[in-house]
Design brief:
It is built from eleven helices and 14 strands. The chain has a seven-stranded parallel beta sheet, sandwiched between helices. The chain has a seven-stranded mixed beta sheet with strand order 9-10-8-11-14-13-12. It is an alpha/beta fold. The structure holds NADPH dihydro-nicotinamide-adenine-dinucleotide phosphate (NDP) and N-acetyl-L-glutamyl 5-phosphate.
Amino acid sequence: MNTVVIGSTGYGGVELIRLLENHPEARIGALVSSSQPREPLRAVYPHLSHMEETLEELDPDRLCEAGEVIFFATPPGVSSRWAPRFAERGKVCIDLSGDFRLTGEAYRRWYGREPAPGDWLERAVYGLSEWYAEQIRSASLISNPGCYPTASLLALIPLLRERAIDPDTIVIDAKSGVSGAGRGLKLNTLFCEVNENLRPYRVDAHQHTPEIERYASEAWGSPVRVTFIPHLVPMNRGILITLTARAAEGWTRRRLEEMYRGIYQAAPFVRIRPENDWPGTKQVQGSNYCDLAVHLDERTGRVIVMSVIDNLVKGAAGQAVQNLNLRMGWDETAGLEGLPLYP
Ligand SMILES: NC(=O)C1=CN([C@@H]2O[C@H](COP(=O)(O)OP(=O)(O)OC[C@H]3O[C@@H](n4cnc5c(N)ncnc54)[C@H](OP(=O)(O)O)[C@@H]3O)[C@@H](O)[C@H]2O)C=CC1
Ligand SMILES: CC(=O)N[C@@H](CCC(=O)OP(=O)(O)O)C(=O)O
């Protein structure tokens, strides 16, 4: 089955290409670039020198012939314009951007743009694979979660659904590698700004805060607010989030771990770490795993959960392929069996 990648020259796009090239069912039907010459992809990425595919323009008629599934690995404002047009022509769209993750009102406020026209915001299905698999299986437009929300919600949703924490006390400290910011030139991601540096950014102002709150609220059943503090770390890939919240009555560390193990028993990409075995980003690098570790600080009565992912895999392209697999009725792990890259 053929797929199209729009935004193929970015970090999310090229990671999708890596995964699709190793996929047993999916093929690449077309690669789209809005800015590069109509040359083979290797002109942009010499590590793909064996690939013959030439970069194409965004021509809907041609792309509808080229593939059944259209991936958008594009900045905000692109899929909101184009994905509905492909979905209306019967194509399955999988969007890696934030264009379909929020309500129209929240999107205007946090992304500063006009949301997609028509009813596509409501029709889009949130692509957090472990929690929305049933809806994903029949979706026309899958809105892949953000990288920080993926790591955060896989840790947080079980705590809320099982009433294990006080939802007014949630703090998420988050750290991301620089590839999370994409390949485009930006002052803040230049070598001398990032190297030997660790810094918070967009504190209390990050666009993933409303996304985490939206799906946390759904899990809890009424509005939940979180304190979300992202940091930029001088490494290429990886996200570590440390979530803390006050424990509800009656919870022990063992009970918390058993709860996570039960919930994610059938989830092939969520691994629960044993007691005092803290996860690091390198342990999931290049893979679609999310590793979770849970602790109960008995002195303060606070639950502590660590969650690590590779931002470009489970946080973007890997989860997009997992959603493709769910949507097509293939094995959920198809094309995603690769082990983490270590060291
Ligand atoms: N990096 C990450 O870890 C994650 C990223 N995301 C989201 O995925 C999306 C892609 O991110 P990422 O790959 O990192 O970003 P990049 O900046 O690396 O790549 C985005 C690509 O989109 C293309 N593009 C830019 N403008 C347009 C346009 N007007 N029309 C069509 N294509 C355009 C560009 O390619 P060209 O100029 O060749 O068209 C560019 O290479 C973003 O929305 C991002 O927020 C989500 C989760 C994690
Ligand atoms: C390190 C870094 O800069 N990460 C990006 C990740 C967010 C992203 O990819 O944007 P979407 O909202 O479109 O998902 C950021 O903090 O904005």
